[in-house]
Amino acid sequence: MGDLARIFKAYDVRGVVPDELDEPTAEAVGAAFVEVTGASSLVVARDMRVSGKALVEAFVRGALSRGAHVIDAGLGSTDLLYYASGSLGLPGAMFTASHNPARYNGLKMCHAGAVPVGSDTGLTTIRDRAAELLGTSPGEPTGTVEERDFLPGYADHLKSLVDLSGIRPLKVVVDAGNAMGGHTVPAVFAGLPLDLVPLYFELDGTFPNHEANPLEPDNLRDLQKAVLDHGADLGLAFDGDADRCWVVDERGESVSPSAITALVATRELAKHPGSVIIHNLITSRAVPEIVTEHGGRPERTRVGHSFIKAEMARTGAVFGGEHSAHYYFRDFWFADSGMLAALHVLAALGEQDRPLSEVVAIYSRYHASGEINSTVADVPAAMELVRQAFAGRGEVDELDGLTVTGPGWWFNLRPSNTEPLLRLNAEADDEATMTTIRDEVLRRLAK
């Protein structure tokens, strides 16, 4: 039970293979998943990690021992698994550790219709039941297995959601990081007027070139150089399971996920006037401003996909975006798809003649620090120091950590769920003010 408690997180399962996550554990989780969800049928997929195939086979054995029919999608991105779950109306399990290093693997699980399984929607119960089953005989497999290829249907479905019929030819560099973007991008881009320059499309779970984590600036350098070298119109980088997409403009400059959120929001509002748009509390304040200006209704949530998805379902929001380059769509079962966001960017760029840097400039109104992590010995004490330092200087909000909003600036400081870290995001009207606020908070944390 102790080991399972360590690898079962708030929204998924993740651990080092085989020290924390091994085949007997995967088998127990497969059996528990069927018992807890009551699934008579389910769909499974995996990313390219070396340990994935054996872990999926073990999970399937567990599911079969409970009489389930398993549809094996084979290799796929997480949003491909969501497509399978949504289109079939079945629960699903995706074996991936997302952007984590090669020695990790894990599980993202969903109910029928791609509804997430989180700690308050079954994940804790699955963990507890799997712990009881560990070390026991799973029983004879009474279920059945069927292999099915969802890639063509997934690609067609995404392209049905974005009108790309009138775009001009574009040169696009895509860095797949030897991960699942190398599998899905060729299928999705097929038939579009795109000159594709592929980087690291060979599936290799050892990540020989760089980790598949585009949030780390070092992992974008090859993409940025290739965009300049090839004179490309833009660059796209996907993470390990290709559910997140990072965008680079024609100058090789990163485009803020807040700007992408605002861009996609305006496009969705043009199709669905007056709709709700979800954003988490550390996206740029330009996002709710632009949503309001375009007749939408911005709704603010805590950081984390379970909060975004729950709020989208509650409000019927047409779109949601996060600072971490996760983008959620009502037309995609309220699930996140980096590929769908990428298609929106391609459509917005290809519908007119300006370069991407000019297209996104109108969505980038303020100066942001980006997320800065600080290791602290005592998280509550450090938070209190900052709270006292800014007492009376702005409006205080504690929806998620500590947010202080002053004249022309704001910052949010929130604790990590898993480490003794505090995460800082600051934004201001001008760079000098942002730097001043950022540095003052960091000084307090260093004491």
Automatic annotation (TrEMBL):
Query: Where does the source fall among the domains of life?
Result: Bacteria
The UniProt entry's coiled-coil ranges are none
Essential cofactor(s): Mg(2+)
Protein's UniProt keywords contain Metal-binding: yes
| Alphabetized CDD domains for the sequence | PMM_PGM
The record ties this protein, via InterPro entries, to:
A-D-PHexomutase_a/b/a-I (IPR005844), A-D-PHexomutase_a/b/a-I/II/III (IPR016055), A-D-PHexomutase_a/b/a-II (IPR005845), A-D-PHexomutase_a/b/a-III (IPR005846), A-D-PHexomutase_C (IPR005843), A-D-PHexomutase_C_sf (IPR036900), Alpha-D-phosphohexomutase_SF (IPR005841)
Example GO biological process term?
carbohydrate metabolic process
Q: What is its EC number?
A: 5.4.2.8
SUPFAM superfamilies under this entry? Phosphoglucomutase, C-terminal domain, Phosphoglucomutase, first 3 domains
Alphabetical UniProt keywords: Isomerase, Magnesium, Metal-binding, Phosphoprotein
UniProt domain Alpha-D-phosphohexomutase C-terminal: residue ranges: 371-442
Q: Where is the Alpha-D-phosphohexomutase alpha/beta/alpha domain?
A: 6-130, 154-252, 259-366
Q: Which GO terms describe its molecular function?
A: metal ion binding; phosphomannomutase activity
* UniProt family annotation: Belongs to the phosphohexose mutase family.
This protein's name = Phosphomannomutase
The organism of origin for this protein = Nonomuraea soli
Q: What is the lineage of its organism?
A: Bacteria, Bacillati, Actinomycetota, Actinomycetes, Streptosporangiales
